[in-house]
Design goal:
8% strand, 476 residues, three-stranded antiparallel sheet, binds fe (ii) ion, two-stranded antiparallel ribbon, mainly alpha
């Protein structure tokens, strides 16, 4: 079966009806999820929102669009189609049939990987909960809520796996996913970037560009997993994730485009007083979101990740397109490192390590290349406007809290700095309180159909073929 069953209390395409125990367990988690949504989800009161809902897991018509009250959104469990012939594509079990059950020896590791992924999904909803109050248009407001309901669904995706395959411990972890909260002093979310607030819409666009994109790469590695239900879950999540990427990419496009217009019209770089975000401030936001997202890839080397790979739990990005033996036991990779430069000094460099231990670097490299694509398109907007300024990705050593460069300070150009030099200069590279206050001062809600805030251009296309001035959201 592939088509979700919407007659059920929990829409699903996993035959939940045939497993009464699992169905009861998930139905008793459902009210906890809904009360989490009401207390930690979007704060702006709305009547309904033009949302897409999955009605299939493949093909063009996989989603249906319509106005729905958010609390009535049909969060469900949808896995991509099963390929009965699927085989493990890498590691020591390469060539074996994919696993339909969790092997006892990998139970703890698989559960941990699912919990860490699951923790990020509701975290982003919490981070973004107040953004509705300052939405630049109804179109943007709708996209925010679409991303939010789908991150909620991604939580369901992970909770399903925990309930279905990890017994009592899995059910306890599912509860914990609702108890931890972004930024909480007592029980914060697991990963650092998911405890940062998303206080304004430039942050939201940067978050959906850089941090959601990290999610895309993490899901890409789990989609390769030998544990087939995890693979199929992630495959469908990636389908939904594409929209989140679009929100980030075109969101930053539209900010850069508006700033460029005002710069050209007024023949000045000094556009803050003209109500748009100056390019250096956009660059600082980019620097921040990119560097905290790099931290999500973990250390440059990791024996845990080597073990996950060898065991078949987590593959590489596009594993099956790689032209090697998919075991990597004899291969090497260059990774970023601090190396001794004599007289007690360390310098930013690279060292060769076993390919298996360098897998975080491999994934991060794919991610960085993808991020460079965004910078290229934003620079094309500047170029087309006839402006000489350009945006850039800062050096990997810049502003890092995880990995080889966590112990040093470096400029966006990759020059090592003393602690004192860093303190002195960091306000040129990361958003200062003044920058944040300024950006926040531009954030006035625009809830009128077809209208847009002054600091951003309208989108080129609406949602699902609707025009920009469509009534995407009805406020309460
Ligand atoms: Fe997600
Ligand atoms: Fe996402």
């Amino acid at each position: 079966m592939t088509r979700p069953d919407y007659a059920e209390k929990i829409p699903n395409n996993v035959g939940l009806r045939e497993d009464r125990r699992l169905q009861r367990a998930l139905e008793s988690w459902q009210p906890n999820f809904l009360s989490w949504w009401e207390t930690m989800g979007p704060t702006l009161p709305t009547q309904d929102v033009y949302l897409r809902t999955a009605i299939d897991v493949r093909g063009e018509g996989w989603a249906q669009f319509g106005h729905v009250p958010m609390i009535d959104y049909r969060w469900g469990i949808f896995l991509a189609d099963k390929n009965p012939d699927r085989r493990v594509a890498f590691g020591q079990h390469k060539g074996d049939p994919a696993w339909q059950k969790v092997p006892g020896e990998y139970r703890a590791e698989l559960q941990r990987l699912i919990v860490i992924q699951g923790d990020t999904e509701p975290a982003s909803v919490e981070q973004q909960r107040n953004l509705g109050a300052t939405a630049p248009s109804l179109y943007d407001l709708r996209n925010l809520f679409q991303v939010n309901v789908e991150e909620g669904r991604h939580l369901w995706a992970m909770v399903y796996l925990l309930h279905a395959y990890f017994g009592r411990e899995g059910r306890e972890e599912a509860e914990e996913l609702l108890h931890r909260n972004s930024g909480s002093a007592d029980s914060p979310r697991i990963l650092g970037a998911f405890n940062e607030e998303t206080p304004d819409w430039l942050s939201f666009y940067m978050f959906t560009y850089f941090t959601d994109r990290d999610g895309k790469y993490q899901l890409g590695t789990l989609k390769e997993s030998a544990f087939d239900p995890l693979s199929r879950t992630c495959e469908f999540m990636l389908k939904e994730e594409a929209h989140h990427m679009m929100v980030g990419t075109t969101g930053v496009d539209r900010v850069v485009e508006r700033t460029a217009q005002v710069m050209v019209e007024n023949d000045t770089d000094d556009v803050a007083a003209l109500g748009v975000i100056p390019l250096p401030v956009i660059q600082k936001y980019l620097n921040f979101h990119y560097s905290v997202s790099l931290d999500l890839f973990g250390g440059e080397t990791s024996t845990n990740v080597a073990n996950y790979y060898t065991a078949g739990l987590k593959g590489r990005w596009l594993e099956e397109r790689r032209k090697d033996d998919h075991k990597l036991t004899d291969d090497a990779i260059m990774v970023d490192a601090l190396v001794d430069a004599g007289d007690g000094q360390k310098s930013i460099s690279q060292v060769e390590v076993m390919a298996l231990t360098g897998l975080n670097t491999d994934l991060r490299r794919e991610y960085i290349a993808d991020c460079a694509g965004g910078v290229k398109r934003w620079n094309r907007i500047l170029e087309d406007a006839g402006l000489p300024q350009r945006l850039y990705l800062p050096h990997v050593a810049f502003n890092r809290k995880v990995g080889a460069f966590a112990v040093i300070e470096a400029s966006p150009a990759g020059q090592q700095l003393t602690a004192q030099e860093w303190e002195h200069a960091k306000g040129q590279w990361l958003p200062t309180d003044t920058d944040k206050t300024f950006v926040r001062s531009l954030m006035h809600p625009v809830y009128e159909r077809g209208k847009i805030a002054a600091w951003v251009t309208p989108p080129r296309n609406g949602i699902n073929g609707q025009p920009f001035d469509y009534d995407y959201v009805h406020l309460a």
